């Protein structure tokens, strides 16, 4: 049976990262790529460049901020931008697609850029993060079932376990003390509700004890260049049990992060039996 790779990648500006997308295609030949922080309004999305890579794109963007896209080599059965209950002023953070698998089955991929939240004390950003997590749970409960072939991928801006924190114990304690987001107890509770709905963290399933692989490295502190590297694993590919039964492996691509002019995030991937 053929194997399929699904990749999630916060590109931090798609037009500045086409060289990384090219490398991603050459290295992994993904069936589906979910991009976050495309930072481009829909009329300016690089459709032709993506098509030259062999992908059909569905995108949901706005100028300079946020923005998501799904790139696929699989036949598209349906695509949706945003949550069905979004208002007109909603930030462009979610795009979903349902695709035909080679064996006649189908798979749904929800690609999301979860808010960063900044700090527990932030009057706007932290409640927005809480609300986004609640809205994602509502979306799953209203539209889908854990018995379906479903993937939720994206920059979730939460490190689920202490194994996923690689900024050093002193920094981690300071972040918690100051209320800085990424692994606050309440954030992990929001994340856990998605897991409890019926999702599995594919990377942690395949690598239960790994504590030195991360997906985001700060530009300013040069976290990727340090030894040991300093980062967080906040980019995740979650899947329902029927897909996890077909899971072959999952990983994080450091080689693409090591390229010139990179995103501050690494691509993360899961491979399944198609």
Give a written overview of the molecule.
With 274 residues, the protein is α+β, with helices and mostly antiparallel strands. It has a single domain (3-273), classed as Endonuclease/exonuclease/phosphatase (Deoxyribonuclease I, Chain A), CATH 3.60.10. It has helices at residues 18-28, 47-52, 125-143, 169-178, 185-198, 202-206, 241-244, 254-257; strands at residues 3-10, 32-36, 56-60, 68-72, 76-81, 94-100, 106-113, 150-155, 165-166, 200-201, 231-232, 235-239, 247-252, 268-273. It has a six-stranded mixed beta sheet. Helix 1 (18-28) links the parallel strand 1 (3-10) and strand 2. Helix 3 runs parallel beside helix 5 (185-198). The longest helix has 19 residues, at 125-143. The mean pLDDT is 98.
Quick rundown:
It contains eight helices and 14 strands. With 274 residues, the protein is of the alpha+beta class. The protein has one domain: Endonuclease/exonuclease/phosphatase (Deoxyribonuclease I, Chain A).
Structure keywords:
8 helices, six-stranded mixed β-sheet, 274 residues, Deoxyribonuclease I, Chain A
Count of discrete structural domains? 1
How much helicity do the residues have?
A: 25-40%
Distance between the termini: 6 Å
Oligomer: single chain
Low-confidence stretches: none
C-alpha geometry: globular
CATH architecture annotation: 4-Layer Sandwich
Secondary structure category: alpha+beta
Q: How does the major sheet shape up?
A: 6 strands, mixed
Strand order in the largest sheet = 3-4-2-1-14-13
In total, how many beta strands? 14
Radius of gyration: 17 Å
How much of the sequence is in beta strands?
Answer: 25-35%
CATH class: Alpha Beta
CATH topology category name: Deoxyribonuclease I, Chain A
């Amino acid at each position: 049976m053929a194997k399929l790779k699904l990749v999630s990648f916060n590109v931090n500006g798609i037009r500045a990262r086409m060289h990384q997308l090219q490398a991603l295609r050459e290295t992994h030949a993904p069936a589906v790529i979910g991009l976050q922080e495309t930072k481009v309004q829909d009329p300016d999305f690089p459709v032709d460049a993506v098509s030259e890579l062999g992908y059909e794109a569905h995108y949901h963007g706005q100028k300079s901020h946020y923005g998501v896209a799904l790139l696929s080599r699989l036949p598209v059965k349906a695509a949706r931008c945003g949550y069905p209950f979004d208002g007109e002023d909603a930030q462009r953070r979610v795009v979903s697609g349902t695709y035909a698998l080679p064996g006649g089955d189908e798979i749904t991929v929800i690609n999301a850029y979860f808010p960063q939240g900044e700090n527990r004390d932030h009057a706007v950003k932290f409640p927005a993060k809480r609300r986004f997590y609640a809205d994602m749970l509502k979306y799953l409960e209203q539209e889908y079932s854990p018995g379906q072939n479903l993937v939720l991928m994206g920059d979730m801006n939460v490190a689920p376990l202490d194994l996923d924190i690689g900024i050093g114990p002193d920094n981690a304690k300071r972040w918690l003390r100051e209320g800085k987001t990424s692994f606050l107890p309440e954030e992990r509770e929001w994340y856990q509700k998605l897991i409890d709905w019926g999702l599995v963290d594919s990377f942690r399933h395949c690598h239960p004890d790994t504590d030195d692989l991360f997906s985001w490295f700060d530009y300013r502190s040069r976290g990727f260049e340090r030894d040991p590297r300093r980062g967080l694993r906040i980019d995740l590919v979650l899947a329902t049990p029927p897909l996890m039964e077909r899971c072959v492996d999952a990983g994080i691509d450091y080689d693409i992060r090591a390229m010139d002019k990179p995103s501050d995030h690494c691509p993360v991937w899961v491979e399944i039996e198609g």
